[in-house]
Amino acid sequence: MATVVDLITYPVKGCAGTSVDSTHLTPAGLAHDRSFMVVSVDGVYRTQRRDPRLALVRPTVSADGSRLTLASAEPESGHGALHLDVTTSAPRRDVDLFGATYRGIDQGDEAAAWLTDLLGTPSRLVRVPPEHDRKTDGLTPGTSGYADSSAVHVLSRASLAHLHTRMAERGAPPLAMDRFRPNIVIDSLPEGCQGEDWGAEPHAEDRIRRATIGAAELGYTKLAVRCAVTLVDQKAGARGGPEPLRTLAGYRRFSAGGVVFGAKFAVVRPGKLSVGDEVAVEAWGDAET
User: Fold this and answer.
1) Residue 192: which residues within 8 A CB-CB, separation 6 or more?
2) Partners of residue 22 on adjacent β-strands
């Protein structure tokens, strides 16, 4: 067994995450996760792959989702916090996410101007409409907001520690967990607790097929294929060197293409999640290769 040591929600796709002590896991993931998305004026999604300064946007959303605050990691540059009343009744518009067309609710000119100024490129902010009905693929069917694919990304500290060992052999320094933008971070049970200590095994999350956490249940969908976002320093909002992709390419290549690190899950049963919850694995499988 293992425990949840961090819960991170990303209200605006591509922007900074917020750690929470507890939250509700909805069918589409952690409450408000990827409920908003920054798009071009043509409605095409923005990502840190091309716009690393998205990492400098620190969004927070009220519990009921009616208020959104956008703050900047560079307040000295004149980007003061912007407080928005979220609208769900404005006209819908088409938005493009990885070539697929969805609908979004534009959040107005004030948000657009704030993001355009900080990112240095014309941008708009959209919200997932209440009628959003996206189907996600993978082993377990599910839904999500504007996440890349499945609703929940799980990563263990053991996997990151193993990566750091491999990187150290190349003379590379360790990286923060936020490079990988997980929703649920797991670790071994506290010392003295009873139970099989699978949480200390690197990449054990790859083999989980069903797991109960708190009042919720997750079903495995796929491995998390990593991209150039992992090269972005999340504090600086700028792309760095070749790590971690260079090291991952040496031992985590996926037969379907790319390198993998962490696992994606669909929500089988919604419910409350809290830091400290035990991760009870109901079914294991073989890791995909």
Assistant:
1) none
2) 274
What is the pairing mode between strands 18-20 and 36-39? unpaired
pLDDT, one tens digit per residue, over 66-101 is: 999 999 998 777 788 999 999 999 999 999 999 999
Which residues make Cβ contacts (< 8 Å) with residue 48, sequence separation at least 6? 14, 54, 55, 228, 229, 232
Asked if 265 and 219 count as a contact pair (C-beta separation under 8 A), the reply is yes
58-65 contacts at long range (C-beta below 8 A, 24 or more positions apart)? 58/15, 58/16, 58/18, 59/11, 59/12, 59/15, 59/16, 59/18, 60/11, 60/18, 61/11, 61/32, 61/35, 61/86, 63/31, 65/31, 65/32, 65/35
Q: Which residues pair with 72 in a beta bridge?
A: 57
Residue 264: its H or E element:
strand 259-269
Other C-beta atoms closer than 10 Å to the C-beta of 100 total: 9
This model's pTM is above 0.70: yes
* 15 vs 61: CA distance, rounded Å: 13
From 62, 82, 2, select the one nearest 280 (Cα to Cα): 2
The helix (H) or strand (E) run that includes residue 98 is none
